[in-house]
Amino acid sequence: MTSTGHGTSIEDYFARLHALIRPVPADIAAVQAGRVLAKAATAQSAVPPQDNSAMDGFLTPPLDAPCSLQVIGDVPAGAPPLSPAPGTAVRIMTGAAVPDGYEGLVIPVEDTDASAGPGPLPETVTIHRLPPRNHIRRRGSHIAIGQEIAGPATLIDAPLLATLLSAGISTAQVHRIPRIAVITTGEELLSGLLPDSNGPMLDALIAATGAVSITRLCCGDDPTELRRVLDSVVQAEGGCDLIVTTGGVSAGAFDVVHAVLSQQGDCAWFGHVEQRPGAPQGHALWADVPVVCLPGNPVAAFVSAHLYLTPLLRSLRGLPRPAGPLDRPALRAVAGADFPGARYPFIQPCLIEFDGTVTAAPPPGPRMRSHHVGALPGTRGFALITEPRAAGDELTVYPY
Fold first, then answer.
1. Residue 205, beta-bridge partner list
2. In sequence order, what are the beta bridge partners of 139?
3. Cβ atoms 14, 279 nearer than 8 A
4. 105-108 and 57-60 as β-strands: parallel, antiparallel, unpaired?
5. pTM
């Protein structure tokens, strides 16, 4: 079914796109940063895995008062535990094993007459102070076997990766890495009249969202060629989960994306969204693969990618589906310059400074137009301007 839209809101268009997206399938794979859990991960090993010392010092039996003890051995990390009998102690390192359930004390080396650091094993140790706690970490006191570490739809980042591995989880049910094709269109790109800046830009924006496999292609304005390119990516080994095009989405005589997908794609929609820049938008299915059609002007493609594409990628990868286009991290900022109003909601890339307060301002110069790519460097987020903001007013900015 094909429809042509006029005056669609940002929120409605966002919902349209998300209706096309399903998370990529999941399988058992090694846990890696950037992957997304499809099923809850539960601890296979306890943390700590055994009773161990929390300090460098001396393991002793229970003591009632400072005293001197005979030192009967060393327990470095990784060595078997030793149980000191009454009147004795063992020198022990942080993380070294303590006998399971041993009821004793670890006396920090600073509270003894022993020298800190490497050195020969002393024959005796004199304890100057008893510690307020035993400095023994009990097996499973931090994470117990069977405890849930993270639920489904959780991104494996560096902290979670460390926790999973510490808890004995080396493989998990994770969503596979999405396969995405980026197709830039226009004879001017093939002829070299204009450089293809949108393709590499979209590559970078997509790659920044997490683990992903990207195929990038360029196509002219010949409908037959575009159909061939679309078929090639959906029929490639491993298939394709999402196609992103840029350019050719308006209603001109050579707007090939609009022409091909509106005639032969399923669930196709092309029209104007109430936003600037980037009013012309479109989407479709090609052989059941979602196609997101971004404008060709670089600033329009850039802001549309942040507004629509990066949230779509979260849903595609198996992360929680956002409730709307502004369901994302936000900062309250003070306007460092005037933000003029506009007839339609204006997506304004912003310079953002953090100096006690958060200050946001448009790039210097005239109001950004859809071809002003040179105004993008240095911007760190966008503001959605629906009414004027004067310098000093508060506004919300969305970092990217």
1. none
2. none
3. no
4. antiparallel
5. 0.88
